Amino acid sequence: MTADQHAKGSVSYLMEMGALKRAKRSGWWIAGVKDPETIAEHSFRTAVIGSVLAMMEGADPAKVALLCTFHDTQETRVGDIPWIGRRYLKSAKNEDVTADQVAEAHPAVASGIQAIVEEYENGDSPEVVIAHDADKLECMIQGLEYLEQGYSNAQEWVDSTRAKLKTPSAIALANAAQGMSSIEWQRVYLG
């Protein structure tokens, strides 16, 4: 493949990632949320949460942010399948979907992104554990926000994701989040 073909393949991947800005997180529809967050919105806050958790846990925040950024990128191809739907489907592993997504990209890009997804899916380092906690904590916080908006069925997501948290820092942040409103952060700064 030529350098131009690799560049086009890499840009193709970047353009595909733009679909995440439009794709909704479908599990929230089960809870009755009419206009749920997008996959990109979820991934952004997951990366920020992951960085914060890594700082609290003494892990590498940049590594955790990277793992979180790429954790749902396969959903451009397979969609956001809610947990209840996954029991009925046998889909490709995220690592296989990623390999297809980056097949035409620059070799360094392809191998780098594949390594990130492989580590997120199969690793057990502190950074991977923290990245998984960040994903769950983001879902829990989003659920709390939906509860405030009147979507009472979001409580199940809050409870189920909170129960899966592993790190002391994620549990501490979950405890703090459950006692706050979504705009309480303003009070901290406004006095």
TrEMBL record:
One of its GO terms (molecular function) is hydrolase activity. InterPro entries: HD/PDEase_dom, HD_domain, YfbR/HDDC2. It catalyses: a 2'-deoxyribonucleoside 5'-phosphate + H2O = a 2'-deoxyribonucleoside + phosphate. Signal peptide: none annotated. Keywords: Hydrolase, Metal-binding. It comes from the Bacteria. The keyword Oxidoreductase does not apply. PANTHER family: 5'-DEOXYNUCLEOTIDASE HDDC2. Homodimer. This is 5'-deoxynucleotidase.
